């Protein structure tokens, strides 16, 4: 199977729950805000607590919009600025006032026509000034015939960045603050199509969602293991996780294909899922929920990325068949 087709499957899972019984739905989310541009096809959201501003990235237009504390929506990073491709994962370093962006080539992007098999697929991590929107530095993998995809990233308390990478190489990259260079961190055996990534509050462990489950990596030793799942909680294969977030010794996970958000309860050693709580299932506004950001005891997440909104020729549906992107909010302690 061509890699770009697998990517579309990976991000635009079949909407399996459309016909489910209403009694199976668990609706605890509320609308935080919506965005004006129906054709953004947003994948990620970030939050700056200093200015109370949200940032949403577009896979379709290769740009970032911001929503201020008064609800005003403006363009923050212009389309394809600094060589951006699709905007995927984003995180904010509030201490250094940086916006970190994962960007990768792909069919969602307007005008993208590279072929994986011959041209390869470029990807990069971009560092922007959070106050001005100016590009500070780009860290790019782009070589003919090589297929790269940076999916998501996380920042530790020291400002070091860890990034998931998939396709030709299933691995974790890092940009250490002291070196400011993109380097390979680890290529663990068994890691397949890594997606969401999060880190414990003490910076000891990374957790990476991938197509086989959830992998835990000890940062200092680089020792890794699969998180045990003795109760067979649905987390992998066609229940794969997109966004994942460490919260009070649990993992908050967003599942696009089964249209759900759940809390995975970990044991004291943080190596076993001992229970789970379904927080949201089958919300009527969900159309490929993707990733989010933790803020004030809640998860704010993209509800309707609409990645499946293309016809057989690869043309985006007309505007009257698209919906305004919705950001939902769910409280995590209720």
Structure description:
By secondary structure, this protein is mainly beta. The protein is built from two helices and 24 strands. The strands form six sheets. Strands 1-24-23-22 form a four-stranded antiparallel beta sheet, with no helix packed on it. The N terminus is likely disordered.
Q: Briefly, what is this?
A:
This protein is mainly beta and 334 residues long. It has helices at 3-11, 116-119, and strands at 30-34, 42-48, 53-58, 64-67, 73-77, 86-93, 98-104, 123-129, 135-141, 150-155, 161-165, 171-175, 182-186, 197-199, 205-210, 213-218, 224-226, 244-247, 250-255, 260-266, 273-281, 292-295, 298-302, 326-331.
Strand content of the residues, in percent? 35-45%
Order of helices and strands: HEEEEEEEHEEEEEEEEEEEEEEEEE
| Helix coverage percent | under 10%
**CA(first)-CA(last) distance:** 43 Å
Number of E strands: 24
Shape: globular
Structural class designation:
mainly beta
- Runs in which pLDDT lies below 50 for 5 or more consecutive residues are 1-22
Q: Average pLDDT across residues? A: 92
What's the quaternary structure here? single chain
Number of helices: 2
Radius of gyration: 18 Å
